Amino acid sequence: MPELPEVEVVRRGLEAWVSGRVVSETEVLHPRAVRRHFGGAGDFAARLKGHRIGVVRRRGKYLWLPLEGSGAAMLGHLGMSGQLLVQPEAVADEKHLRIRIRFDDALGTELRFVDQRTFGGLSLHDTSPEGLPDVIAHIARDPLDREFDDFAFVTALRRRRTTIKRALLDQSLISGVGNIYADEALWRARLHYDRPTMSLNRARSLELLGHIRDVMNAALAVGGTSFDSLYVNVNGESGYFDRSLDAYGRAGEPCRRCGTPMRRRPWMNRSSYFCPRCQRPPRVSS
């Protein structure tokens, strides 16, 4: 599933190609693509028509396109395989095209939502006075947000009675961090994924937060992480941070720091990748 860097790459593309344009027509080609919109496909299309798209925003893994002057926004969730593509109108439809949005200008491009597995979707929601869609009000700010409170995060982290990777994937504590970037940041911080949060002091917690930011900014600089053709930016291009991963997906390969073979362990229906020497597991109390 795309994490913060991948969604931010898409947001930047949408801001460049879609913000400021007025919707003229919307086609919903698969009902599952708007299943989170309570009014259904017809209502979704009708409510979009005639609205100007504002500056595209993001929180964590969610992005939304404000509808200027309406108090509402179109929320996008990419799921496992969702793509928001800006395509010339003359380009043939993609095999898994689910929604098409046309605009009332002469630029000759349209916005397409393509989703092979149909886990993602688009929906319209009311927004708060701050412009946040109501359904994601519980999502915490992400570490690249200028208003993210480092010390509040550290305090909340150390109060949690859980393990560090579980905490990093808790979107009510810190948003945008998924399995890939959690493993990368923990490798950089030399922390095992099962380390109890209560065992981290303030300095260690702030160091980990710094590593999270560093790995996300590094991924952003090269367009995010693409293991297959399902994640692409709005122009259909893949990112290539997968070439720079230090932990994720490297089971059996030498640790880039000490040379010890990296390990993979099943973890919460996912996998965790770590170095058994650099990231020693916590001691089990007797």
Structure description:
It is a single chain. The protein is built from 6 helices and 10 strands. By secondary structure, it is an alpha+beta fold. The protein has helices spanning 4-17, 40-48, 150-159, 164-168, 179-189, 202-221; strands at 23-28, 57-59, 62-67, 72-77, 82-88, 97-103, 109-115, 121-126, 263-267, 270-274. It folds into 2 domains: 4-136, MutM-like, N-terminal (N-terminal domain of MutM-like DNA repair proteins); 150-274, Orthogonal Bundle (Helicase, Ruva Protein, domain 3). A 4-stranded antiparallel beta sheet has the order 1-6-7-5.
Compile the SSE list and pairings.
Elements: H1 4-17, E1 23-28, H2 40-48, E2 57-59, E3 62-67, E4 72-77, E5 82-88, E6 97-103, E7 109-115, E8 121-126, H3 150-159, H4 164-168, H5 179-189, H6 202-221, E9 263-267, E10 270-274
Antiparallel strand pairs: 1-6, 2-3, 3-4, 4-8, 5-7, 6-7, 9-10
Helix pairs in contact: 1-6, 3-6, 5-6
Note the main attributes of this structure:
286 residues; alpha+beta; N-terminal domain of MutM-like DNA repair proteins; Helicase, Ruva Protein, domain 3; 2 domains; 4-stranded antiparallel sheet; 6 helices; 24% helix; elongated
Order of helices and strands: HEHEEEEEEEHHHHEE
Q: Report how far apart the termini are.
A: 38 Å
Gyration radius, in Å: 20 Å
The helix count comes to 6
Tell me the strand percentage band.
15-25%
Unreliable segments of 5+ consecutive residues: 227-231
CATH architecture of the largest domain: Alpha-Beta Barrel
CATH topology of the largest domain: N-terminal domain of MutM-like DNA repair proteins
Largest sheet: 4 strands, antiparallel
